[in-house]
Design brief:
Length: 330
């Protein structure tokens, strides 16, 4: 099978295609023939060598994917050959034509959900769910602001929060993004390029302030977020690309909470809980991943450039096609 290999940390171009022997599932393991793999910013951070949890070189990138079960090891009880599944974490990495997983790393992909959409579930929906419910303990009737809401995590957060009965305000930077988040279920949309846009949240919450803020770019927004919170409000830091200075008094008067989150800390029980919610949401239609681009596996380097350097609307996924492309990998 063909797979992407990283044998040194660096720019996207360190990724290269290799032909390797197909993995063979051992006890409790499942081999999935991948149809799509999700491309996440965290994949780029790990590849660069700058992420806290460093990969052991050489390795195949990719956390998310979707495909069809091709083989199962002894002791596997809930997966059989031919099952459609999505993958969240794996043993061998999802930027490949086949991936080896534990049974618990595979989840049913309901009819009507494409493989590309399945590859867009694990990290985006996992981050949004953990931030909203496992960290902020968001409740029906509360207000939530989702910064940078037109990306994969943002869209997931909108859908999850709305399905839970929350009042959802989204920030975006373009008219196309505005239309996308409204379609995803946002009740109100603000332009984060407009100076003082967070001041509008006071009117949108009838003067109460925001109960929860999901912060995708804390180094830019965190200091301003605190002034928009309700008493007892919570900011969950989902992403940051640098340092920031805040005034602690803004948190003191509101008795606000600032917390960070990472999927790497989710326990097996927490992961099982979130994926049970995802499968139910996919089945009842309240969750629907949005795909912005599908690119062949050979264009993994280009995909990493785009996910970090452009404003994607929805999710970028790699398809199982390993066809060479002069702008991708050689």
């Amino acid at each position: 099978m063909k797979t992407i290999i990283v044998d040194r940390f660096g720019d996207p171009e360190v990724m290269r295609m290799e032909e390797v022997v197909d993995p063979v599932p051992a006890e409790g393991q499942v081999l999935v023939r991948l149809q799509a793999a999700g491309v996440n910013p965290v994949d780029c951070y790990i590849r660069s060598g700058l992420y806290a949890q460093k990969a052991q070189l050489p390795y195949t990138p990719g956390i998310d994917g979707a495909g069809v079960v091709e083989a199962v090891g002894s002791g596997v009880r809930h997966r059989k050959i031919g099952d459609r599944v999505y993958i969240a974490w794996s043993l061998t990495g999802t930027y490949a034509e086949k991936v080896l997983c534990t049974e618990a790393q595979t989840h049913p992909l309901p009819p009507g959900i494409s493989f590309a959409q399945g590859a867009a579930i694990g990290v985006p929906y996992g981050a949004a769910f953990r931030a909203l419910f496992q960290k902020a303990h968001a409740l029906p009737g509360e207000s939530v602001l989702v910064h940078g809401a037109s990306g994969g995590v943002g869209i997931a957060a909108i859908q999850l929060a709305k399905a839970a009965g929350m009042w959802v305000i989204a920030t975006v930077g373009s008219e196309q993004g505005r239309q996308l988040v409204l379609k995803a279920g946002a009740h109100a949309v603000l332009d984060h390029n407009q100076a003082g846009h967070l001041a509008q949240t006071a009117e949108l919450t009838c003067g109460a302030g925001l109960d929860v803020i999901l912060e995708m770019l804390a180094n830019v927004n965190l200091g301003k977020d605190l002034g928009a919170l309700a008493t007892g409000g919570r900011v969950v830091i989902v992403g940051s690309r640098g340092r920031v200075e805040i005034d602690p008094r803004d948190a003191m008067g509101r008795e606000a909470v600032i917390m960070g989150m990472t999927l790497f800390n989710a326990t097996a029980r927490e992961q099982a809980s979130m994926h049970a919610a995802f499968v139910a949401g996919l089945e009842n239609g309240s969750l629907c991943p949005v795909i912005s681009r599908e690119m062949p596996l050979a264009q993994a380097a280009r995909a990493h450039h785009e996910v970090m350097e452009t404003h994607t609307l929805g999710k970028i996924v790699l398809t199982a096609s390993a066809e060479d492309d002069p702008s991708g990998l050689s």
